[in-house]
From TrEMBL:
Positions of the Uracil-DNA glycosylase-like domain: 54-214
Catalysed reaction, written as an equation: Hydrolyzes single-stranded DNA or mismatched double-stranded DNA and polynucleotides, releasing free uracil
Cited Gene3D superfamilies: Uracil-DNA glycosylase-like domain
Organism in which the protein naturally occurs: Rhizobium halophytocola
Main location per the UniProt record: cytoplasm
Highest taxon of source: Bacteria
UniProt xrefs under Pfam families: UDG (PF03167)
Protein name: Uracil-DNA glycosylase
GO MF term (any one): uracil DNA N-glycosylase activity
InterPro entries cross-referenced by the UniProt entry: UDG_fam1 (IPR002043), Ura-DNA_Glyclase_AS (IPR018085), Uracil-DNA_glycosylase-like (IPR005122), Uracil-DNA_glycosylase-like_sf (IPR036895)
Amino acid sequence: MTTTDVKLEESWKKALSGEFDSPYMQALKTFLKDEKAQGKQIFPRGAEYFRALDLTPLDQVKVVILGQDPYHGPGQAHGLCFSVRPGVRVPPSLVNIYKELKSDLNLAPPPHGFLEDWAKQGVLLLNSVLTVEQARAASHQGRGWERFTDAVIRHVNDERPHVVFILWGAYAQKKAAFVDQTKHLVLKSVHPSPLSAHNGFFGSRPFSKANAFLKAHGMAPIDWSLPANADSA
């Protein structure tokens, strides 16, 4: 996996060229090729590994939401954390995100879980690990993706002004612990998973807090409403 053979939005391709050309990314590419050669089903499809970066160029990042791994069920993952393809049942954590969105901004939940509309407005929906084997959660952890996405976060931290980092759960909070809180807003709560959402996620109001911060720094807020028809997102 080198800079020349990766199809990626240009601002990110330039920023991350050193990562793509490094030995750990070569090893990751070899690992993924070997997994596919063994007939394993990898999610998301190859063209969508970097979908979050493609939809949210570096110079347009306003908000970062961090996830951990792609969904590992058929037809779910498409490169954005917490998001699923149109027509796929909304996962439990996203159901809870929608509940908090309703409570926070009185926005009715859409009948789908397709979040590309947020990404196109500057919300970087970044998983820490960008691939997974079908039905094997966390199967690609420790293969190099974490180092790559650390670099993504570092570029946002260093090069963007006044970004909102929304960190749900201990994993995301540890991963982004180096973010400069004198420049950026870091919003922390427990994960929206049904196992933890009632312990501090509900009532945390991340969406209104993010928009207040953006407006206070002269930036357009995010329209967190999602179109009812996922195809128009």
